[in-house]
Amino acid sequence: MTPARKAGNDPQEWLNRAKSNLVRAKEDIRLSGVFLEDLCFDAQQATEKAIKAVLIRRNIQFPYVHDLMALLALIEKEGESLPEPVKQAGRLTRFAVVTRYPGLEEPVTREEYERAVIIAEAVVQWAGKQVKKPKRQKRR
């Protein structure tokens, strides 16, 4: 197995990438000419990668999709209760594709952007705690 492949199975590396996307979502607002849609995409990506870090940590197989509710459902299926702020992640799914292209949706508002960042921060923080938890034994 190549080193890059091993990193793909490391939940901490996924979490590191999630944190990178979150930094861009928060900090790039200061750049002129940046679209809120692009910043919301970074918030969605931070959330998606954080959730996938938890899935990897729990050895749960997942599809490479952007549907955050479908990914969270895989965690719930294993008996995990999700905190309310994490359940809000599904609101960010639309930022993965549709809002990235001109004319497919109304422009993202500042309020939507701020909400997206709050949700992404909550999910990344939650995922960080989940990744650090000791591994649970698989149910038989």
Kindly describe this structure.
The chain has helices spanning 3-8, 11-27, 36-57, 68-77, 84-87, 110-132. By secondary structure, the chain is mainly α. It has one domain: Four Helix Bundle (Hemerythrin (Met), subunit A). Helix 2 runs antiparallel to helix 6 and helix 3 (36-57) runs parallel beside helix 4 (68-77). The protein is globular, with a radius of gyration of 15 Å. The model is unreliable at 1-5 (pLDDT under 50).
Average pLDDT, rounded to a whole number, is: 90
Ranges where pLDDT stays below 50 over 5 or more residues in a row are 1-5
Global structural class: mainly alpha
Task: Estimate what percentage of residues fall within beta strands.
Answer: under 5%
Q: Any idea what the CATH architecture is? A: Up-down Bundle
The radius of gyration over CA amounts to 15 Å
Overall, the morphology is: globular
Distance between the amino and carboxyl termini: 29 Å
H/E series: HHHHHH
- Percent helix, as a range, is 55-70%
How many discrete structural domains? 1
| Tally of separate helices | 6
CATH homologous superfamily label: Nucleotidyltransferases  domain 2
- Please summarize the sheet with the most strands: none
